[in-house]
Structure prediction request, 397 residues.
Amino acid sequence: MNVFVVNCGSSSIKYQLYRATDEAVLAGGLLERIGSNEAELHHDAGGARHDRKVEAPDHTVGLGVILDALVDAEIGVLTCIDEIDAVGHRVVHGGEDIRQSARIDDRILEIIRKNAELAPLHNPANLAGITAAMSALPKTPHVAVFDTAFLATLPPHAYRYAVPRDWYSRYHVRRYGFHGTSHRYVTLRTAELLGLAAEKVNLITVHLGNGCSMTAVAGGKAVDHSMGMTPLEGLVMGTRCGDIDPALIFHLARRAGMSLEELETALNKQSGLLGVSGVSNDMRDCLAAAADGNDDATLAVDIFTYRIARYVGSYFAILPGCDAIVLTGGIGENSPAIRRKICRLLHRLGATLDDKRNEAILGGAEGAITADGADLPVWVVPTNEELMIARDTQAIV
Ligand code: ADP
Prediction:
């Protein structure tokens, strides 16, 4: 069985083609700048990378370009498109309607459309990809894998905000969380690595990419999460502020005369590592500047790691136990410096770092970075959202 995994953004489509029997990736890639006249396809197949300028005015044409590449005589891996047995789609927001992945039918399409109100940048793009793929592959089953689904098990005391209650009933104001597919993948994988049953494992999973989020997992289920109604809440991120006092918005509106739009842009796109460091939203640049003696970059990194430690502390208080802390995402998987700082802050909880292990785990490797017998093991487990989508799709089909 071949499963085609599609992840549509507003101007890009990421894709992977899996052979389900052995989970081998037959091909994968990225089509970017859809809608401009500079669209580019980066296609990996058979160990080689192929970059091409292509015409992709919209997602429908873009998906056609990708399907053509998959059957291309030179760079393709299939003889015909019918060899795709199922398509798995990443969908960001399922709201309160979705608790697990589902085969796409009219009801699911309506749910994705309805929840676009809560994910205005993502759900419409996801929907565009689904529509394009369903018209190109009308006889093939399509499955939606929702980012919010893993977080649907949060109890009300974790997902409700202490605001007037009709904001929840009338305007759907609550914590939904994001990155759920990543948190679910690393939860299952870590349970396997620890030799524990998935429904028994207690973890704190920490996804550190451009966006950053944490999940408290009890008995294999998410019980709390750092992102909120939107991805702005929680940890410090590349350009997002994470937790702030909401009253600073009123202060800035009054004092600096900033509009709602200006404040929204500033908190989403000009804050986080970029805002504090003044250097970059990229952790590598911040670490390099900090090493060169830039105090603002040092502070940005300090706030970033301190916030993580603070969340770990609060999740310790609410979990029945903690088998491990799991670090993933670009920063978690690749930065020994950040991992060292996090372990140092968690030293009192028993996260005794093994320096050699920490330096050695890079570029997709997995393993513990704490010493054998540490009270609080810290693991690095590279995320694989596409594989999670492929597995769900196979299981449902
Ligand atoms: P996205 O959330 O867009 O998928 P990634 O998971 O790829 O992003 O993570 C991007 C982040 O990972 C960036 O802040 C980048 O600086 C960081 N990163 C990647 N490699 C390293 C590294 N070697 N050291 C520190 N940070 C790294």
Remarks:
- The mean pLDDT is 97.
- The longest strand covers residues 24-32.
- Residues 93 and 119 are 6 Å apart (CA to CA).
